[in-house]
Amino acid sequence: MTGQIIVTDEGATRVITLRRPDKKNAISQDMYRGMSDAIDKVQNNPDTRCIVITGGSGVFTAGNDLDEFLKEGTSESKTPRASNAIKFLYSLAHNVKPIIAAVDGIAIGIGTTMLFHCDYVLASTHATFSTPFIHLGLVPEGASSLLMPRTMGYQRAFAMLVMGRSFTAEEAQTAGLVNMVVSPGHTEAEARKVARDICKLPAEAVAISRKLLRLPAEELTRRIDQESHLFGERMRSAEAVAAFKAFFARKKH
Question: How do beta strands 50-54 and 13-18 pair?
């Protein structure tokens, strides 16, 4: 890795830190691969009881690296769209360890949709959550079209996924996405505390209870595949191409 993903093991907790501050932790294909590997490698390790995902202080992630993302999505290659991103989503879907997310700042696109695969989410008062796919002529991804209405109710999911509305930390807590809102700069420390609490509980009972609460992995991956297929089609649509051109034109000014 290039240091954009930092993986540390602290006792029974694996901490995955996004570290690309110059790009607001925008996720590249290499970063997706790094996160997948960090999750996959502890699945059969009884010594690792919990996973924490954090962006550090001040930011979670601005979502996909759009320059790289656009190149991948519009290439004429027959390989699956953004395959490392899909691999990461599969890793989340099949993961059996409790995942705690520490969100201090923006969580855009997959920065929000990955949270629906997490078991406990902490947010700072500065956190904001948005899935602006619609503004780029795109559709939901990450099984969010399945998990978001289940977690937040249809109306809130419609506002976020179809209207592109963003949510504050307090609104996300009211909606059921966020467990606890804390002061800026404290999300990571609080996430470690939650992880320690979970690690003290009986491991097998936690694993079985978690499995009972969650949808089967096969149902999640089926929706991930369905969304990915539609997402790929949309990437080549006139609507999306025009939206991306307008977006990058605004970025230049």
Answer: parallel
Q: What is the mean pLDDT of residues 8-31?
A: 97
Residue 236 lies in a domain: no
Look at residue 249 and tell me if it is in a domain: no
Spatial separation of the C-alpha atoms in residues 26 and 209, rounded to whole Å: 34
Q: What is the pLDDT of residues 169-216, one digit of tens each?
A: 999 999 999 999 999 999 999 999 999 999 999 999 999 999 999 999
pLDDT of residue 61: 98
Domain that holds residue 162: 5-186
Q: What share of the chain is helix, strand, coil (3-state, %, to 5)?
A: 50, 15, 30
Structure pTM? 0.94
Distance from C-alpha of 89 to C-alpha of 221, rounded to nearest angstrom: 8
Encoded tokens for 19: 């570290």
End-to-end CA distance of the chain: 33
CB-based contact 34:63 (threshold 8 Å) = no
Helix H or strand E encompassing 189: helix 187-199
Q: Is residue 234 part of a domain?
A: no
Instruction: Count up the domains in the chain and report the number.
Output: 1
Does residue 83 surpass a pLDDT of 70?
A: yes
Question: What is the identity of the amino acid at 28?
Answer: S
The beta strands (E) that lie in the chain are given as 5-10, 13-18, 50-54, 99-103, 106-108, 120-124, 128-130, 167-168, 180-182
